[in-house]
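Intended use. Records like the one below are meant for learning the mapping from a protein sequence to its folded structure. Do not use them to infer anything beyond what is encoded.
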Amino acid sequence: MELKVRWISGGALIIWSILVVISFGITGNRIYQLSDVFRISDDAVIILERVISKYINRGLYAMDDNYQKSFL
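Structure written out for the chain above:
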């Protein structure tokens, strides 16, 4: 009986260790995606350019020539 308990607890420990490593890997990957500032800012720039180009196509222009040239 003592041998079976040892194998059961050892097996449970191995399975639990594998699950912990996998969950830490998933969590670490998610944290990396959220902390990737350049990717987040690239998405924000794309959205900002779409909004500005939509307003420029409507005929609403800014007074600054440099601002106009960078988004045309």
